Design the sequence.
């Protein structure tokens, strides 16, 4: 069974102490995964990230998944084989927590995966999900950047270096650890540093520097004339800096963000597309897909349209439309008008709900701690089911699931609050 080494305690001296102080850690995924399997793992994590620790399972349209990774959208045999490889790959971590205590753990990369009715459902073990969700431990890989890689070793090295980009160095890795990270630890050929350097290190470094948003430089440590350890110096690539997802609400306030979410795009992926392509470009492709018609997987087709810059066909020479065509066009315009009105109503509802939630926050802030506790207990007592109560316990007065009940509750306490 392949192994994944999650290694975070190979830094030394002042650099190691700084890492522990900041609780910076890294998860390294075995190079024994193929390039497409590694890309698949990153796309699955991106899709699940928003609900990584709150949902037990995650789903994504199988054709959309295939298109985002680079599979033929009908090649389910390859997709099944790759999901099986992720479920059979062991992840292991050995790290220091914030109090300096040692923690070791092991988990499969995916606890399960299944394909049914064109949908991929999968899950992570709770322990691994906690590690993946912590940005101090694991950094999401940009799916646009990973598309630039053509070799598994290059992408593996990028992932293992990108975790440490804010420190500026990976810290020293023993060569046997590095071979595991690159997936060549089982090969006698690569026990020779000469072969390892020529066939793995140099080509992978060149691809990272050419294809990604960081620049890396290897450094070697010797014992006598024998190279024993390797580390990589890391800095941003000013020529190819891509983007960082803005975690503020800027993108979320855009109309195009709301339209993406209405199409089933996850929060993080929607913001990534907007950051990567710009608001106007994404809106253009949304309109293109909307007008296309007959698309089986809207999300998958939209992903392809953004990636490959789909353009509408050149207009034909104008001809006098038939009565049937005129009637169809009028019907289409009427439908668009209905959809636009519905969209405007949804936007207005969201804005009104946001206004009222802000008022609720202000009302809560005026209450003393005893009153706040009493308010929560009284509100919980009025909820009908466990799901509503659990959501309120997790999100308090920002619970969108209970928004209507929250407004009614505070309307009774403060009749003029929302005027």
Sequence:
């Amino acid at each position: 069974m392949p192994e994944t080494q999650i290694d975070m305690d190979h830094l030394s001296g002042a650099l190691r102490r700084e890492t522990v102080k900041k609780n910076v850690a890294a998860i390294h995924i075995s190079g024994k995964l193929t390039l497409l399997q590694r890309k698949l793992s990153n796309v699955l994590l991106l899709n699940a990230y928003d609900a990584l620790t709150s949902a037990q399972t995650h789903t994504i349209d199988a054709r959309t998944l295939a298109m985002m990774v680079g599979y033929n959208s009908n090649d389910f045999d390859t997709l099944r084989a790759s999901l099986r490889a992720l479920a059979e790959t062991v992840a292991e971590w050995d790290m220091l927590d914030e109090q300096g205590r040692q923690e070791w753990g092991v988990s499969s990369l995916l606890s399960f995966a299944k394909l049914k009715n064109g949908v991929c459902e999968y899950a992570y073990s709770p322990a691994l999900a906690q590690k993946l969700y912590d940005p101090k431990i694991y950094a999401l890989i940009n799916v646009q950047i990973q598309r630039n890689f053509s070799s598994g070793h290059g992408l593996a090295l990028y992932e293992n270096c990108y975790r440490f980009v804010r420190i500026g160095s990976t810290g020293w890795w023993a060569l046997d650890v590095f071979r595991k990270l690159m997936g060549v630890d089982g090969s006698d050929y690569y026990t020779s540093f000469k072969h390892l350097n020529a066939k793995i290190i140099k080509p992978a470094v060149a691809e990272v520097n050419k294809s990604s948003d960081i620049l890396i430089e290897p450094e070697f440590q010797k014992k006598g004339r024998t190279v024993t350890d390797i580390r990589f110096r890391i800095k941003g690539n000013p020529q190819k800096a891509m983007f960082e997802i803005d975690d503020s609400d800027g993108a979320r306030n855009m109309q195009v963000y709301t339209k993406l979410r209405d199409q089933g795009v996850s929060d993080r992926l929607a913001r990534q597309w907007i950051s990567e392509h710009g608001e106007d470009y994404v809106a253009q492709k949304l309109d293109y897909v909307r007008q296309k018609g007959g698309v089986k997987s809207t999300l998958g087709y939209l992903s392809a349209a953004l990636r490959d810059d789909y353009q509408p066909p050149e207009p034909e020479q104008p001809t006098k439309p038939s009565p049937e065509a005129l009637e169809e066009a009028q019907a289409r315009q009427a439908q668009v008008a209905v959809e636009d009105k519905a969209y405007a109503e949804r936007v207005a509802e969201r804005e009104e709900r946001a206004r009222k939630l802000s008022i609720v926050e202000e009302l809560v802030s005026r209450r003393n701690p005893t009153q706040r506790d009493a308010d929560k207990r009284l509100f919980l007592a009025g909820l009908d089911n466990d799901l509503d109560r659990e959501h309120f316990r997790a999100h308090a007065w920002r619970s969108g699931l209970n928004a209507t009940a929250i407004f009614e509750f505070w309307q009774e306490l403060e009749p003029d609050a929302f005027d």
In short: The radius of gyration is 26 Å. Strands lie at 3-7, 58-61, 90-96, 102-108, 112-116, 119-123, 173-174, 214-223, 226-236.
